[in-house]
Amino acid sequence: MATQYKRIKTNDTQPKNKGTYLTKENWDVMKPFVHFAFKAMSVVASAIVVIIKIIPKALEQAPPKPSPEGRALKNLKS
């Protein structure tokens, strides 16, 4: 009795160029994730900008220079 082998059909929907990963099918799957990533990065960037604008500058926080009249120790010439 002879064994009959079935030949497996090849799938013609696969791209012919196997080095290209950005195909129409792949882009349709990745598109929502790419859009979400861009929106999330823009939210993070805008939050960073707002935080940096809120932080006061170092020159504004410098203590005022004391006036010579208001010093505790004055010249001890008597």
Overview of the structural elements:
This protein is mainly alpha-helical. The chain has a domain at 23-51. Helix content is 40%, strand content 0%. It is built from 1 helix and no strands. It has one helix at residues 24-54. The radius of gyration is 36 Å and the shape is rod-shaped.
State the main characteristics.
single chain; 78 residues; mainly alpha
**Residue ranges: pLDDT <50 for 5 or more in a row?**
none
Integer average pLDDT? 76
Structural class: mainly alpha
Oligomer: single chain
What is the string of helix and strand elements? H
Helix content: 25-40%
How much of the sequence lies in strands comes to under 5%
H/I helix tally: 1
Number of separate strands: 0
What is the end-to-end distance? 131 Å
Rg over C-alpha atoms, rounded to the nearest angstrom? 36 Å
Characterize the main sheet. none
Shape: rod-shaped
Annotate the secondary structure layout.
Elements lengths: L23 H31 L24
In short, what is this structure?
40% of the residues lie in helices and 0% in strands. The longest helix has 31 residues. The protein has a domain of 29 residues.
